UniProtKB/TrEMBL annotation:
It comes from the Eukaryota. GO terms for cellular component: lysosomal membrane. It is found in: Lysosome membrane. This is KICSTOR subunit 2. Gene3D superfamilies: 1.10.3450.30. The keyword Nuclease does not apply. GO terms for biological process: cellular response to amino acid starvation; cellular response to glucose starvation; negative regulation of TORC1 signaling; protein localization to lysosome. Its main location: membrane. Transmembrane segments: none annotated. Pfam families: C12orf66_like. Belongs to the KICS2 family. Keywords: Lysosome, Membrane. It comes from Acanthoscelides obtectus. The keyword Chloroplast does not apply.
Length: 335
């Protein structure tokens, strides 16, 4: 790696580790002596501004409760990124024929691609937020949007100096892809594929967390106040926990066969949401004969009776048979 590439690689390493002040200090050292070319000085100034934008991205406001506050903060962040993209484009356009200018041109091109990917992810998170607020979360639609972002940028910002940024971007996209694929597979009652995807998301979250070495103070969002990790990462952790909770409900009886009842209750109590215990509590509180969750027939096995509704889980668990005719008022769907 050449010295100039190493400079930018160190910058992106600091950014990927959430050490934004170190990234700014690293750039500041390159501003000396003050007689550096104007184009180079402008490039360095924009790098420092980009570090601040990256910090805001990791503490993005889509987790806030108020819709207006979320939109205002999101639009502000998008505006910052778009302005930076224009600034780097101007530097790129003003590069001449020298070897150093060609290198700056290459860096600007890759950084512009990176910023474009950031804006696309902001749009994706905004879409997820709005759909969840309206309670119209269609997993297939979101999954397709994630795939679009991945395919669009699979060949972008691949310069060696941006390797740390590329690695974190890939982890973020893959975590989203695996978790929403899991939600689709859960609708189809796919046990092993869902289990493998949850494990994959967990592994990537751990790998991403391992890259975070920040000792800086974080201005956290309203939802998470006691963790040093950025709000975006915490939201992804919570999403994984929600998916795992749903998995443990859908395949409760399968999982229960692998351990003792007391251990199963203990493990479920550690989940983000202990759905099965809520079923038990509901059944006992209202003295119901059964609490049953039925599939809406979007399952991946052959059945000749398309009016039947397989039971996903029930309490007491002895009620495990297929209804041929189920009154509409009995149907309880969890998507």
């Amino acid at each position: 790696m050449e010295k100039d590439d190493e400079f930018l690689h160190i910058y992106w390493t600091h950014v990927s580790q959430l050490c934004y002040e170190k990234a700014k200090e690293h750039v500041e050292k390159e501003k000396e002596p003050k007689t550096s070319p104007i184009l180079w000085m402008a490039f360095l100034n924009f790098l420092q501004q980009l570090a601040l934008a990256e910090k805001n991205y990791m503490d993005i406001g889509f987790l806030q409760n108020k819709h207006k506050s979320f939109l205002r903060k999101d639009n502000s962040l998008r505006t910052i990124y778009e302005a930076l993209k224009n600034d780097f484009k101007k530097v790129e356009d003003n590069c001449r024929g020298s070897a150093f200018d060609r290198r700056i041109h290459k860096w600007c091109k890759n950084i512009i691609q990176y910023i474009t990917a950031r804006v696309d992810l902001i749009d994706l998170y905004e879409k997820i937020y709005n759909l969840s607020i309206n309670k119209q979360l269609h997993f297939d639609d979101i999954h397709n949007s994630i795939d679009t972002v991945i395919d669009k940028h699979k060949d972008d910002f691949t310069d060696i100096s941006l390797t740390p940024a590329r690695a974190v971007f890939s982890l973020e996209c893959e975590i989203l892809q695996e978790l929403f694929t899991t939600l689709i597979d859960l609708q189809r009652l796919q046990f092993l594929p869902s289990l493998a995807l949850i494990h994959g998301a967990h592994t990537r979250l751990a790998a991403w967390e391992g890259k975070m070495q920040s000792r800086e103070s974080w201005k956290l969002g309203l939802v998470f106040k006691n963790s040093p990790l950025p709000a975006l990462f915490q939201w992804l952790q919570k999403l994984k926990g929600t998916v795992l909770s749903k998995f443990s409900l859908y395949f409760h009886d399968t999982l229960a066969q692998q351990t003792t009842p007391s251990d199963m209750r203990h493990l479920c109590s550690k989940l983000h949401y202990d759905h099965y215990q809520k079923m038990v509590t509901f059944q006992r509180k209202y003295d119901a004969s059964y609490v049953i969750i039925l599939s809406d027939n979007q399952v991946s096995y052959d059945t000749r009776d398309y009016d039947s509704f397989p039971i996903i889980v029930s309490y007491p668990p002895t009620c495990f048979y297929i209804f041929s005719v189920v009154p509409t008022s009995w149907k309880l769907y969890l998507r």
